Amino acid sequence: MFGVVFPDRSFPMDISAFSQIDTFHWILDMNTFVGDSYDQVREICIFLLNNFSLPPDKALAVYVQSPGSPFVFCGAVTLARPSAVLSLPWPEPGGFGAGGQLQIAAAADAALPASAKIGVSVEELAALPSLDAAAEKRIENVAMKVGENLFNFMQSFCGVDGSKLVVPMDILDRWFKKFQEKAKRDPDFLKGFAL
Known about the structure:
Blueprint (H helix, E strand, L loop, with lengths): L1 E4 L7 E2 L4 E4 L2 E5 H5 L8 E6 L9 E8 L6 E6 L5 E5 L16 H4 L9 E8 L8 H23 L3 E3 L2 E3 L4 H15 L1 H8 L1
Antiparallel strand pairs: 1-2, 1-5, 3-4, 4-9, 5-8, 6-7, 6-9, 10-11
Helix pairs in contact: 4-5
InterPro entries: Hikeshi-like_C (IPR048364), Hikeshi-like_N (IPR008493), OPI10 (IPR031318)
Family: Belongs to the OPI10 family.
GO molecular function: nuclear import signal receptor activity
């Protein structure tokens, strides 16, 4: 039905590496795969196998679950998108992540897990959040970090006039020039915004 690869960490694995919960739900226990360092596994490539035909209104949704946390939606593959490399946004252990909650929870044990898991589920395509939820989150994080960088730069030049902050008129030009120069000098500078 499907296969997965953890880039730079595994050979291709088929559905037999997962425990089947019921007809439409599978779980991979990360403890058996990488032990406690599950959070170092940052990406998964999931793909439909050639001889499996998923109905056009269905998707194979991928979720992650840290110990003591609910499942968090990562993305999905469909007949129109038969493979995808998805980021794995592991929630804080014991915390509550944002995003869609896997319906495997009803099918699996109700107790909170002792190890991290990856869940795969056949679901209605229309019921899923954006298939690129992780990409949207990365874009949001980059925008927030750039905005924070601008705010910190502006704050260092601010004056106070009553209840208003006053900044020089050319503050955006100065910030952007400094931002570009720093990016040219230090290739890792921009990478820090994408984390």
